[in-house]
Amino acid sequence: SNKMARITLVVVAVCVIMLSAMVQRLQPLRYISVGCGYMAQTICSAHFLSERNLNSYIKNELDLPESAAFHWDIVEDDKRIDVRLSFLSADVTEYLGAPACSSYYINARLGCRLGQGHHLSHNREKMLEGRDMEVSDRGDRVTDGDWVTNINEKLQAKLLQHEFSDEALATNQTRAVVVVHKGHIIAEAYQNKLGIDQNTRLLGWSCTKSILAAIVAAAMTAGHASLSLESELDLRLVPDDVRTLFEANNHRAITYKDLLTMADIIPFQETYGPVGDVLKMLFVDEDAALSALSARPADAKSFSKLKKCVPTASSDEGDNSQEGIKHNPFYYSSGVTNILSKDFRNKLFSKYSTLNNTENIRKRREQNHAYWNYPHDLLFGPIGANSFAIGTDPSGTFVASSFGYAAARDWARVGQLFVNNGLWPLKPGSKAIPKLSSKDEGDESDNDQEKQNENRDTKDTEPADTKRIISEELVTFIKSARPRSGGYYGGSFWGHPGRVSKEDHEQYGSYKISHREPDEHQFRGCLGRLDGNTTVAYYAWIDQLGSLLPSDAYFMAGHHDQLVLIVPSLELVVVRIGYVHRSNKPWNRTDFFRLILEEL
């Protein structure tokens, strides 16, 4: 019996150790916190910002199989959504300190702000900051006075059948399509069966990264805070406990050019599992930039080795040795975008951020309101994209990687701004014609700020009745391929790899997916890390569209196939906002774009 008791004790001990290891690895509290935050934020945004029918929204779009584990309440008088574990009452949840969260609707420009339980206890006033800021009525609904509609009936009929029929709703789940050709809307449709129309603010997910790039470029064009592509990341953002690692992996100053083109500067992993870096940053942590900067690699040495891979040939950009790489390898990262968002805020709106006397508290409040209105004052207002809302983290900084909402027409407006080469018409119904550069295309100045000043000095030569929002030089930067991306990525916009010549592939890197073995990928050049599926997935489907689209095509892209396609040579903008449910067939991008191009 003693022997059996000893055996039993050993078995129990082994089970406890295995269970402990499994719990530590799976991080159940992280699972719960991510699920809670995801539900609170998305339901709040759908109900209060997008004004969706919640029953329809939850049935069709709440992308969380474990949602039955949570209970949520709408608190209409406080404009918030509370979420907790379904098997615990509110009182028991509070008593036990169990995971719970709330998302508060702030206003039409900021949408909803999420807080986990530990953020809410003593910070209600901070969580609600912005509810009292002045937001003009024009931010509440789409204005369309300067859109001219010239519907192509054949294209409209094809889109309705292909994307909005009952059969399509059961498969591809498209929510809104807007096609703009030569400045006119030639096709437009919405999933009315789900209560969606031209006024519905729709989530663009990672299309928001491109929106931040447009905002930053507009600020540079306007000369605000002396910003340029060479402006440097303030290292005071980097937490002390990871600064040594950060500096060891970045042997030079990190610039806005690096941040906009997704330089691989941090060990943040762009993976979307419930214990991954992305969902923790979006739905758990209080400060998105700090969360990204604090991400630690499983093996710091392996991250360093991957990051500093040696190119196959020297580029004309300077020293590419392992000790002094001028271009960090490309790594698509939501974390890098939120670091840029935080630094941008600090450079323009941080004067009163530390002192706590009464006068500075008042000034800080006014400064925060100015920051939250800034995208509308600088970009959205001038182009009439008044439905835009960008959510903030609990610290008040725009979550520019993911939380951008707008009506489909307003997503199209931003696309049209780039078709117009950064110009916007001032008169309703007029059309901004891109100004041809008087400079030779190969004559590039090394001083980006000087370029912007030259552009401002020549504003009198712009076409009449137009306003310069983004300089030609910055539009070119945004749509041009960055080295080591295979030609697929530019200044926070994806692009056609055909824009990179074969001769340049040693500098830009190249990518080819093996159709014989789909999991095998072949690379040339120094492309950097591929520890997540996002980059590979984008490369693969961009290649599928390669033969269909002109080589100057570039686009915003987001989760669930949110797309804003921009083709300057065709004067074409195509917006597709939708949802791809994991149980449905993948949305066929090739058929969709072929259908449109055939009817131009």
List the keywords.
600 residues, alpha+beta, 7-stranded mixed β-sheet, 4-stranded antiparallel β-sheet, 22 helices, 40% helix, 14% strand
Gist of the model:
With 600 residues, this protein is α+β, with helices and mostly antiparallel strands. The chain is 40% helix and 14% strand.
How much is the average pLDDT? 80
- Biggest sheet, open or closed, and with what strands and sense? 7 strands, mixed
The percent range for strand residues is 5-15%
Number of helices: 22
- The strand line-up of the biggest sheet is 5-7-6-18-17-16-13
Low-confidence stretches: 137-144, 305-326, 432-458, 511-526
The SS-based structural class is alpha+beta
* Cα end-to-end separation: 86 Å
Indicate the overall shape.
globular
Please provide the count of β strands.
18
Helical content class: 25-40%
From the alpha carbons, calculate the radius of gyration and give it in angstroms: 25 Å
